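Hello Y.,

Per our agreement to keep a running log of every chain we model this quarter, I'm adding this entry. I've kept the format consistent with earlier entries: sequence first, then predicted structure.
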Amino acid sequence: MGGTPRPEPLTRLRTSTARAPERSLESRLQTHVQRLAGEIGERNVFHPEALHAAAAYIGDVWAGQGYAVHRQSYDVHGVVSANLEVSRAGSWGTDGMVLLGAHYDSVYGSPGANDNGSAVAALLELAGMFAAAAPALTVRFVAFVNEEPPFFTSDQQGSMRYARAARRRGDDIRLMIALETIGSYDDVPGSQHYPPLLRWFYPSSANYIAFISNLRSRRMLKRLATAFRTVSDFPLQTATLPAIIPGVDWSDHRSFWRQGYRALMVTDTAFYRYPWYHTAGDTPEKLDYASIASVTEGMFGAVMRLCDGLAR
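Predicted structure for the entry above:
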C-alpha cells in the first residue's frame, strides 16, 4: 500500500477455526504468503532478483491454473518491471469486464506479508476459483508492479501504466477492485483506529473487511457489498470517502479513478489497525489466514453475482 506509514499500538491477532472446506484454501493462501514474504522477501526494483522471482512465482501459479499469462513490461532505473495479467472469459460474450488487481512489490525495508502478500495470495486463489467457474462477464486478474514509494502516483507505478493503456484500448472495465492489505483482524475493542470523526460511525474492533470507494464509484460499491453480504457472513464495513482522507486512495484503484473508471479498494484498513505496516516486522506469521480465506471465498461469490447482474 502506498503512502506514508503511521505507527499504531500493538494489537492481538484474532484466531478462528475454519470450516473443513476452507482448510485447504487457508493452507494455500499461507503457502503463497510464505513464498512471497518468507522466502523471496523484500521485492522491489532495489532488489530486482526478488522482484523478478515474485513475478515468476505468480506467473507459474497462473499457468498451472490453465491461464495464458500476459506481461506488460517496462524499464525502471534499468530494472525490467512487469504487470502480469490473466483473464477468465465471460459466458455472455459481452465486452464488459470486472478487474481484480493487487500489487506484488513490497516497500523498501519490508518483506510485505500483509502489504501486499495477503492480497496477492487472494488474487491467485480467486483466479483459480474462476478458472473452474463460468462468470457472466469476463473477470480479469492483474498483479501490479511498483505500487510502493517512491513510485506511487508516478508514471512508473505499474497500475498507472496499466490503467492508461486500458483507456487507450477502450477496455470496458465496469469495476476495478484493488485488493490491498487484507490479512489483519482483531476482536479486541479499541484495536481499530480511524481518521478524525470516522470513529463515531464505525466499530472499535478490527474484525472486519472494508470496501472503500470515491463518490463516483459508490453505486458499484453498494452492489458489490450487497452481493458479498448475500454469500458471506464475514463482517463488512463500507465507506465512500474523499481522497483527502489519508489512506483512501493509497493503492492501485487510484490509477483507475484517474482514468475515469469506477474502482474501489478491499482492505483491512492497513495502518489504521496493523502495527507492522511498512516495517521489517510485516512477516507471514502475523496474518490471520482463516479470515483471509473467508474474505477470499466471499469475494468469489460476490464477484460472480456482480458479473451476473451487470451482464443483464
